[in-house]
Amino acid sequence: MSTPSAWETAWASAQPAISTIQTSLGQSSSPNPRIIRVGQLDSELLDQELSSLLQEPINRALPLISNTLKSRFEPELAFLIQLVLYKFSVWDTGASYGAKLQDLRYVAGKQQGSTRTTVGSRIPRRTLLAHGALTLLLPYLRERLRSHALSNAWPDAPSSDRRRKAWDLLDNLETTHTLLGLLNFTMFLWNGRYRTLADRLLRMRLVPCRRQVKRDVSYEFMNRQMVWHAFTEFLLFLLPLIDAKTVRKRVYRLGGWLSPQSLLTLLPEKPLARLGITLSQQSSASLKKQGKYANLAENECAICLENASFNLNPSDPSNAFTTIAATPVHSDNPDAQDDVPSHPIHIPYITSCGHLYCYYCLAERMVQVADGEDEERAWECLRCGEEVKQADRYSVEVPEVDDLDVSGSEYEFSSDLDMYTDMSGSMGSYSESALSE
C-alpha cells in the first residue's frame, strides 16, 4: 500500500480549521448595507418634481374654464395627485418613483408575522396607512386650516378670542414641527437612517434594493450642459457681429447661381445641343441679369415687397394687403396695372439701370451698402441684378397746351350763376363792417 502524498496530508490536516471557519460564517449575521444619504435626498427631490410636473398642466388648464377654479381647488388637486402616486408606488411596490430611480426601497423596523402586508411592498398595511396619513393627509389639512384662518382674519382677532388662540396654537405647532424636522435632519446626516419625522415615528427607512451597493456617478449630463452653455455664450458674442442683411443677400445670390437656368448658362453649347437643349445668347444674357423681382409690376416697389416678405408681424400696416410669399409677383395680365398696387412707389427715384423705387427704400439700401464693410461698393437692383451707381428723382414730362379752346359752344355757363358768382359787394361790405367795428 502506497504512502499518502504531501498534498493529501496537508488537506487532511486542514479539515478541522475549514469546518471551524464554515461554522463561524454560518452563525455570523450579514453586514449591514451601505447607507447612501445623497440617494435618499435625491429621491425626495425627484418625487417633488414629478408631482409638480403632473400638476402644472392642470393648473394652466383650470383658468381657461374659470378664473376661480385654481385658487379654490389647488390644494385638493395636489392632494389627489400625491395620493395617486402614493398608491401606485409606495403602497404597491414599497418604494416611491424617486426611490426606484435611486435603487432604494422602504423597510419597516418591526414586522410581526400575523400582521397583514401588501403584496409588493411587504410592509404592514397599518404602517402604510399611518405613513400616508402623516405625509399626505396631515399637510393637506394644515394647508386648508391655514387658508381658512387667513381668510377669516384669525390673526387679527383679539387675544382673548378663541380664533386668535387657535391661530397661536397652530403657529406654535408649526414652529415645533420645524424644530423637530431640523433635529431629525441633523440625525439623518449623522447616521442616515430616517429621512423624515414620519419615517422615524413609524420606523420606516430606505435601504438599497441590492446587497452590493454601487453608486454610478455619471458626469455626462453635466458635461453636456457645460458644452451647451459655452456654445450659447459663444453665439451671444458672435451673432451681434454678423450682418443679417449681408448674409441674406449672399444666400439669395447663391440661390440664383444654383438655379437650373443659371447652371445651364455655365455649360458649353455643344453638350446642350446634343441633349436637345437650345439656349440663345439673348436668353442667357437675360437670365444672368434677371433679378429676384424681375416680373414685378412697374408701379410697385420691389424693396417694399422684399421687406414685407420678411416682416412676420400681421399688425404692421405694410402687411395689411399683402401675403408673405417667397416667389415674386408676376404681372403678365395687362389689366394688372389698373389694379391698386399692394406696394405703391412713394416719391419715385430712378436708378442707373432704369428701374423705379421709393426714395426712402432706395436711400436706405444704398446707405447700408456704403456704411458696411463689404467687398462690393454698390447695391444690386432687385429687378435686373445690376449694380446701382446713382439714383435721380423721377420726373414725368407733361405736354404744354398753348391753345386751349374754351369757346362758348364747349363751355356754356348758365345765366343763373351770375347772381351767385358776383359776391364782391357782399364781401366788401362784410369787410368794411368788420373794419368799422
UniProtKB/TrEMBL annotation:
Cited InterPro entries: PEX2/10, Pex_N, Znf_RING, Znf_RING/FYVE/PHD, Znf_RING_CS
Keywords on record: Membrane, Metal-binding, Peroxisome, Protein transport, Transferase, Transmembrane, Transmembrane helix, Transport, Ubl conjugation pathway, Zinc, Zinc-finger
Enzyme class, broadest EC rank: transferase
Annotated GO biological process: protein import into peroxisome matrix, receptor recycling; protein ubiquitination
Gene3D superfamilies recorded: Zinc/RING finger domain, C3HC4 (zinc finger)
The keyword Zinc belongs to this UniProt entry's keyword annotation: yes
Catalysis: reaction(s): [E2 ubiquitin-conjugating enzyme]-S-ubiquitinyl-L-cysteine + [acceptor protein]-L-cysteine = [E2 ubiquitin-conjugating enzyme]-L-cysteine + [acceptor protein]-S-ubiquitinyl-L-cysteine
Membrane topology type: Multi-pass membrane protein
MF terms (GO), sorted A to Z: ubiquitin protein ligase activity; zinc ion binding
Cellular location(s): Peroxisome membrane
GO CC terms, sorted: peroxisomal membrane
Residues in RING-type domain copies: 301-384
Pfam families: Pex2_Pex12
The enzyme's E.C. designation: 2.3.2.36
Keyword Aminoacyl-tRNA synthetase attributed: no
Pathway the protein contributes to: Protein modification; protein ubiquitination
Family membership: Belongs to the pex2/pex10/pex12 family.
Protein name: RING-type E3 ubiquitin transferase (cysteine targeting)
